[in-house]
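Thread title: Can someone regenerate the structure for this chain?

I was given the following input by a collaborator and told the matching structure tokens would be attached. They weren't. Posting the sequence so someone can regenerate them.
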Amino acid sequence: MDLKRSGSQHSQKAPAAHFTGTVRIDPLFQSSAPARAGGAYVTFEPCARSDWHTHPLGQTLIVTFGCGLHQRWGEPVEEIRPGDVVTVGPNEKHWHGASPTTAMTHIAIQEALDGKAVEWLEKVTDDQYQGRHKGAVESNERKAP
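Best answer:
Regenerated them for you:
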């Protein structure tokens, strides 16, 4: 058994190479082999967001504070709030972050496959963040009565 005391692991600034804006990562756990799960609190300041990315075995996000945004490739931007649980499938292209006016914290849990838990892709543009891109419009039109 391993007990990690609250505050015993250092907060890290998320790398600008994969995030826009101010994002803090507070590690929670990293399983030892043969287990492969890891988790962290991730706090996004207003307007901050991840780049587009995928996870080889998927990801679960549990929103604990604030108001955030999440988007799957080709779908509209969705608002997420405390208590919401977002389940992202294996290799599903997505991004997540804070709303324009409110910070957001979530617990992120994912498993690594062959030592890799994430594949980083391109930056989320301001138009994509604001929901003004072709994929969101097409998706909204499909859902209209």
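The chain has two helices and 13 strands.
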